[in-house]
Task: inverse folding
């Protein structure tokens, strides 16, 4: 199966499930293959914010995702948080592009220090050592000095820190349009064509 791009998408327990749901759908629509890693906290937030109760069994989850996002077989591959034998855990096979949306400040702290206690953290470690592209999308306010220091560390390592802070110049009429604003920014930085949102002055 041929895809336009392959991306690792990590989802943590920060608020903002709607962003990642829209981002995943947009990636599928753009013919992107996605390795999806959800933390346990992300599953809880997803249920709380979007009233979506996804299977915890990986095999069932993959079947569910194909139907939920109308994707090709094998286009979305959900991975367990401790699956150390998955492609994203190895520099020889991991995608060179990764997004964490939303990114909790706990994950922000861990990856800024090079920890690998779960698959999201290990996938980031691989992206850094292979000189790939990482976009982290924190959703927290206010930000402590420690949060800001961790963001600075990641930026100095080459990551793009893209807080989930949508603009309003496109006069959004719905929450979905706010989601799309940020999704469009991510897709632009990944250099993947999309139709998620209007650009400035369009």
Result:
């Amino acid at each position: 199966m041929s895809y336009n791009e392959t991306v690792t998408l990590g989802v943590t327990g920060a608020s903002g499930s709607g962003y990642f749901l829209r981002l995943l759908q947009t990636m599928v629509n753009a013919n992107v293959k996605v390795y999806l890693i959800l933390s346990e906290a992300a599953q809880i937030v997803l249920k709380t914010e979007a009233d979506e109760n996804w299977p915890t069994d990986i095999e069932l989850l993959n079947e569910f995702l194909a139907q939920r996002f109308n994707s090709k077989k094998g286009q979305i591959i959900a991975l367990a948080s401790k699956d150390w034998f998955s492609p994203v855990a190895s520099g020889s096979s991991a995608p060179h592009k990764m997004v964490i949306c939303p990114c909790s400040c706990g994950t922000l702290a861990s990856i800024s220090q090079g920890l690998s206690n779960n698959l999201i953290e290990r996938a980031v470690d691989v992206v850094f050592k292979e000189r790939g592209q990482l976009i982290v999308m924190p959703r927290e306010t206010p930000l402590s000095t420690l949060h800001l220091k961790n963001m600075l560390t990641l930026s100095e390592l080459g990551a793009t820190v893209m807080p989930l802070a949508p603009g309003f110049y496109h006069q959004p009429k719905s929450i979905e349009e706010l989601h799309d604003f940020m999704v469009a920014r991510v897709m632009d930085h990944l250099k993947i064509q999309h139709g998620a949102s209007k650009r400035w002055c369009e």
Q: What stands out?
A: The domain at 5-190 is CATH 3.40.50.1950 (Rossmann fold).
